[in-house]
Amino acid sequence: MKSKLVIVVLLAASLAACNTVYFYGQAVTGQFNILAKRESIEKMLDDPQTEADLRTRLETILAIRAFAEAELALPVKNNFATYADVGSLHVVWNVFAAPEFSLDVKNWCYPIAGCVSYRGYFSEEAARNYANELATDGLDVWVGGVAAYSTLGWFADSVLNTVINREDYRLAALIFHELVHQVVYVPGDTQFNESFATAVEMEGLKRWLEINRDSADAQAVVENAITEKAYREQFVALVQSYQPKLHDLYDSSLDPVAMRAAKAALFDALREDYAGLKAGWNGYSAYDAWFAEEINNAKINTVATYFNHVPAFDVLLAQANGDLPAFYARVAELGKMSRVDRHDLLEALVGQ
Question: Which one, 227, 258, 286, 292, has least CB within 10 Å?
């Protein structure tokens, strides 16, 4: 672990001549703080001082790890074998940005990870300060708190206090998602990476739920999870249905004032459509906060990033007859293609 940390520190030092030195410095410090706070889950379970509720959650983590390795062929290794309390509700805050009249997301490029459509800070204040700088340049910006992330194999990822109290199935889905990033990760292609991870997350959740139907309580949890999954798919479909409308608007010849008004009208219509959709959700309100805050091009793009190619990955999984290792191998082949060819192939799969 120390040798890897030294590599990261040296990497940050080598960038000291550029104006992003603060960003890399806070990233190194933030990751180091997590590493310093982590504790072995096995040792915590052996410790009689560990609180009963936390003990139950940690036992669930071990069960999820075992399932991920045995049933989903995910590279568990030493990941999620430790627990760390970071002392906040989020571990990282990601900044997203896009032009005022375009859905072409702004990208930031880093060593190893390549170019991604967000910039992460371990401080909410720092993230919002940077977002404000981008906003003064006329960009649409959005800051989203992150409960967990993958170090892509550079360090063994830990379970954090930010997620430990989630329902079992939500915790399982998150762990599946983060582990997938260590199966195939293509630097510079956020949509590919996140859609792939989301597709496996959802398949893993389906299989996880299938083995948890034994009791009446478990059946209720399964039904609730299936319902929430359906609501999420409806939310995603609704938001993505507005992307073509926005593209058409931004490609039009309207002057900036008129285009700005038309853009605001589209987002108002999106909120109204959501209210109509939610009316059939029996009081489910998980996306109310998303709609309550400002909607802009940067925020719309976060939905596209995680879900755009999920249907294509579902097709690939079906073609592999549900064999996850074979599916992973096929995805790895796609990862070796050029970005254009890779995305063209994924779009063609959905059209079949």
Answer: 292
